[in-house]
Design brief:
The longest helix has 15 residues. This protein has about 400 residues and is α+β, with helices and mostly antiparallel strands. It has a seven-stranded antiparallel beta sheet with strand order 5-4-1-2-3-7-6. A six-stranded antiparallel beta barrel has the order 8-9-10-13-12-11. Among the domains are: about 140 residues, Roll (Pdz3 Domain); about 130 residues, Trypsin-like serine proteases (Thrombin, subunit H, Beta Barrel). It is built from eight helices and 21 strands.
Amino acid sequence: MTKKVVYQLTARQILFLALATAFIAVGTVACLTNFGGGWQFRNDSNVALAENAPQGITEPSVVSDEQNSIEVYKALSPGVASITTTSYQQDMFGEVDEGRGSGSGSVIDAQGHILTNYHVIEGAQVKLNVSLGGGKTYPATVVGGDPDTDLAVIKITPPQEGLTVISFSDSDKLVVGQKVLAIGNPFGLDKTLTTGVISGLQRPIRGRNNRPIEGAIQTDASINQGNSGGPLLDKYGKMIGINAQIYSRTGGSVGVGFAIPVNIAKRVVPQLIQFGEVRRPKLGATFFSIEQLREQGAEFPVQSGLLIRSLAAGGPAETAGLRAVSRTGSGVTLGDIITSIDGEKVGDIDDLFRFLDKKQINDTVRVELVRNGRTMIVPIKLNPLPQSFQGRPAR
């Protein structure tokens, strides 16, 4: 007969858990619905993403660097969109305040779909307009948005003369030092070209919701306010990234910009067009970080991992029999502590996000956990959460 182990916590530790629970409770539903930022998607939606080489660009090795920049700009700038957003909010006195925003985007198909950053269109509550140059603007609608990857797709009705489509490259094949070109609308200056090189790869950045976005491209090509959502191109005129962030102490460009790799967009865009959202595998659980709890003086049988705080009813973790923290008359009974999944260490919530990025709904994973002082492995099928926990990103 297996002896059940109940870890006794001091009054101070119980108080800490109670306070932590109160703070986290506000975000429980959000954690359950959005758990497991990810980009993997099997494209079964028949959404065609352009990957053909653009016309009008000479083989870069046989022309000067200057001529290459001229040709890339001439060929691709008509496919770079200037996006303006307008929203209205009522203040406490009943006065209506108008808010305006701007950014950039890339035409990605002949049907009028435009790829941009989620944060560019996040506040577009009333109006969304797109200019492709020539003085004409087009009303646009939001097709879908994903705050976890800071990507969104909007759509215009394509003009009769057609659209210039910016095709995708393969961001997994990039190397530090190669030439890049950024086209966008910094400070409202239409179709501005800046050039530079890839300064670094695999840079970790975070979205507006603080979710990690792995593998960002660092570049010294000048990126400023208004460049967000515009394309980062290679010398062949193909998109390798979506300009998203800058590092700056003053708010201006200091030559450290970051772009979201286009291979993330390849996996996200078909879902945004088909569903309006990214449908990710989720465990259906919220967690305490063991390392953070240990810093507060609590003692646990492991040095790091994720202590299950709560479970979504009917979710994959509960269905597999995992256990959450519970209170007893003699103290607090620990829930399961997840230490690895499929052999990959899970030390904090970011590790879990990164792992689930690689998985699909209905995949089965092997979760290593500690329960009552014993290490065990539990298979979990990543079924969709019950409908009550599903949600779409804010439009």
